[in-house]
Amino acid sequence: MRNAIRFLLMLASNLFPLYGLFFLGWSPFNTILIFWFETLIIFLTFQAKLLFRVIKGQWFALFVMFVTVPLIFFIYIHLVISTLIFNGVTQLEWAQVKTILSSALGSISLGIFLVLLNYAYELFYFIKNQEYEPPLSNKSKNARKELNTLYARIFFLQFTVIFGSAVFGITHKPILAVCLLVFIQVVYNCAVFFKSVRKVEPKTDTVLNTGNTF
Prior knowledge:
The protein is mainly alpha-helical. It contains eight helices and no strands. The chain is globular. The model is unreliable at 202-214 (pLDDT under 50).
């Protein structure tokens, strides 16, 4: 049941930008902005998980939080670049970028809410199922694994946005660029989702077989 809800939330949050583009009158930039917000929310969700580990006495998680902070600057730079490309801005003027972002945020609030709901659900089960165990340490494999997962998700999403921006810059067809971006994002997230499901299934089988043995 949990996996079904996770999958539906993931699909809804990833496909909603297309619905906004074709039925709600969104501009192509609005759809790009949704994916930028997803990157930011991924980062904040990861930080929230680390903070919960710190509360549980896993002090190495505090070091990991500090190490990953520079990612926020990488995310911000990509926001500015995407804003410039999709809105035909030739000079980096923060006042103009701020005006563009302010006008876009009001119309995409529902899309942002779906993305938030998706990752809030993930965070809820992280806490409920005590997925913060085993604890992080400077020698543990799970610390490197969690960092690699974070970097992979953020860099893939950001470079997907760059790819969509490049397609738009070359073809001057924003709808094509957005459709490609959404397609790549959905395929990637589906692959990650089914990989995580397959990792859980063998553990469940092992527990059942052990129970039947005794």
